[in-house]
């Protein structure tokens, strides 16, 4: 099992030019503190919506890969987005960082998901797997998308990083600028 920050860094190193959509809470804070950049779209207070928003980004900018960084609790809130993502066949990698807890709200245990990779395949994703190590993550073939990567993570032992210091309006404007889109499209 991986430290969640090591998993995030490994995904970012593997997909450096991708557009990123991060779920709300500590995962967004981790990404913001590890590698803030204009191609990150942080969800602040939108639990369960990383997958659908990632799909929207992928459909709007089909020339770039989209990586969704989801938590196990957030993923469980919106399993209905899986067949919708699968149907559109975007170049999207849906990463589920699973530490078995709703860390951002106090560390409550998340509902058992069963096998997120099997759920994604059953919904029509082109590929899905579960990994427990950096070596397994590095060895993945992610050429067929949409793909789901379920990463088993250790419980958090570190303090959450700083909150995103940008307003939602600033986030949208910055993300659009990173895409080369007009500020008020």
Concise structural overview:
The chain has helices at residues 4-14, 26-35, 50-60, 72-77, 81-88, 116-123, 134-138, 168-179; strands at residues 19-22, 40-42, 66-71, 92-98, 101-102, 108-109, 127-131, 147-152.
Task: Please provide a written account of the structure.
The protein has a single domain (4-179), classed as Thiamin diphosphate (ThDP)-binding fold, Pyr/PP domains (Rossmann fold). It has helices at residues 4-14, 26-35, 50-60, 72-77, 81-88, 116-123, 134-138, 168-179; strands spanning 19-22, 40-42, 66-71, 92-98, 101-102, 108-109, 127-131, 147-152. It has 185 residues and is of the alpha/beta class. Strands 2-1-3-4-8-7 form a 6-stranded parallel beta sheet, with helices on both faces. Strands 5-6 form a two-stranded antiparallel sheet. A hairpin with a 5-residue loop joins strand 5 and strand 6. The radius of gyration is 15 Å and the shape is globular. Helix 1 (4-14) crosses helix 2 and helix 3 runs parallel beside helix 5 (81-88).
Which terms summarize this structure?
Rossmann fold; 8 strands; alpha/beta; two-stranded antiparallel sheet; 8 helices; 185 residues; lyase; single chain; six-stranded parallel beta sheet
Q: What is the assembly state of the chains in this entry?
A: single chain
- Overall pLDDT score: 90
Look at the structure and name the CATH superfamily: Thiamin diphosphate (ThDP)-binding fold, Pyr/PP domains
Compressed to H and E, one letter per element, the order equals: HEHEHEHHEEEHEHEH
Question: What's the CATH first level?
Answer: Alpha Beta
Distance between the termini: 42 Å
Q: Give the second-level CATH assignment, the architecture.
A: 3-Layer(aba) Sandwich
The number of helical elements comes to 8
Q: Which regions have little confidence, pLDDT < 50, spanning 5+ residues?
A: none
Strand order of the largest sheet: 2-1-3-4-8-7
- Biggest sheet character: 6 strands, parallel
* Class inferred from helices and paired strands: alpha/beta
Number of domains: 1
Report strand %. Answer: 15-25%
Under CATH, the topology can be stated as Rossmann fold
CA-based shape:
globular
Number of strands: 8
Fraction of helical residues = 25-40%
Tell me the radius of gyration.
15 Å
